[in-house]
Design brief:
This protein has 260 residues and is α/β, with parallel strands linked by helices. It contains 10 helices and 9 strands. It is globular and about 65 Å long.
C-alpha cells in the first residue's frame, strides 16, 4: 500500500511488522489533516498477520509538527471538532491493534512530539531534537499532547518547553523520558525495527494488556488498579499460547533471563 504522504510496508518472515513511513520530506514530514486521517485508516486496517508496527519519517526528520500552511481561521466550535479529529486518529495509534515503536531522528517538534508520545516505545538517534513551539506561535497543543507528554516528562517540563521555547537534544530528551532508547545517528530505524520484531514474538494478549490495560491501571486508584490487574492477569494466563509458553519454560525449552 502506498499513498502520497504515507507509505505502508509489511515486513518479516511472517509479515508480522508493519513499517509506516511519513513521506513528506520536503515539508520535514509536517502533519496535514490528510496525513493524520491516513494514519488513522492504516491502523484501522492493518493485516491480521501484523503484531507490531514502526512509525518512521522519510528524510532528515521524523516530524516537524503541524503543517502551518493548513492552519485556518476557525471559530471555537470548529477548532474543537478539528482537535477531536486528531485525538481520534492518534488514539488508534496508542490504543490500536498492535504495539507501536517510533523511530525518531531530526525534528520531533509540536505535533510530531504528540505523535511520538502516542507510540508505546521511542527509539531516538543522536540527531533528534524535541520542541513545543506552540507557545511562541500563539496556539496550544491540540493533538493529545497536553495529556500524553506530561505523562512522559511531567507537567513542569512541558510547561517550560511551551513557555520558553526550550529545545531538548537527543541526550537530554532520553534522560528526561522522551525516548527509551538512544542510538548513533542513522540507526533509529534499525533499532525500532529490531524492537518491533522482538515485541511481535510476545503473546498477543500480553501485548494487548500492556497497551490497553496498563495505562488505565496507572490512572486508577490503587484498589481499582489491583482488581483490574487481577482480571487482566487471569485472562492472559488462561490463553492457550500462555499455557504453552509456561510449560516450555518449566520443561527447559525456553530461554532464561540473563544479565544484559
Amino acid at each position: 500500500m502506498s499513498k502520497k504522504d504515507l507509505h505502508l510496508d509489511i515486513r518479516g518472515d511472517d509479515k508480522e511488522v508493519a513499517v509506516i513511513r511519513l513521506a513528506r520530506p520536503a515539508k520535514r514530514n509536517a502533519l496535514s489533516d490528510g496525513l493524520i486521517l491516513a494514519l488513522r485508516d492504516v491502523f484501522e486496517n492493518l493485516p491480521a498477520t501484523v503484531r507490531a508496527a514502526v512509525i518512521d519519517g522519510e528524510g532528515e526528520h521524523f516530524c516537524a509538527g503541524l503543517d502551518l500552511s493548513e492552519l485556518k481561521e476557525r471559530d471555537a466550535g470548529q477548532g474543537l471538532i478539528h482537535s477531536r479529529m486528531w485525538h481520534a486518529a492518534l488514539e488508534r495509534v496508542q490504543y490500536g491493534p498492535v504495539p507501536v515503536i517510533a523511530a525518531l531522528h531530526g525534528a520531533v517538534v509540536g505535533g510530531g512530539l504528540e505523535l511520538a508520545s502516542a507510540c508505546h516505545i521511542r527509539a531516538a538517534d543522536d540527531s533528534t531534537f524535541y520542541a513545543l513551539p506552540e507557545g511562541s506561535r500563539g496556539i496550544f497543543v491540540g493533538g493529545g499532547g497536553a495529556v500524553r507528554i506530561p505523562r512522559l516528562i511531567g507537567a513542569a517540563r512541558m510547561t517550560d518547553m511551551m513557555l520558553t521555547g526550550r529545545v531538548y537534544n537527543a541526550q537530554d530528551g532520553e534522560r528526561i523520558g522522551l525516548a527509551q532508547y538512544l542510538v548513533p545517528q542513522g540507526q533509529a530505524f534499525d533499532k525500532a525495527f529490531e524492537l518491533a520484531q522482538r515485541v511481535a514474538q510476545n503473546a498477543p494478549l500480553t501485548n494487548y494488556a500492556l497497551m490497553h490495560a496498563l495505562p488505565r491501571i496507572a490512572e486508577q486508584p490503587a484498589d481499582q488498579g489491583f482488581l483490574t490487574e487481577a482480571l487482566m492477569a487471569a485472562i492472559a494466563q488462561s490463553a492457550p499460547e500462555a499455557k504453552t509458553r509456561v510449560r516450555d519454560f518449566l520443561e527447559g525449552r525456553a530461554a532464561k533471563v540473563k544479565k544484559a
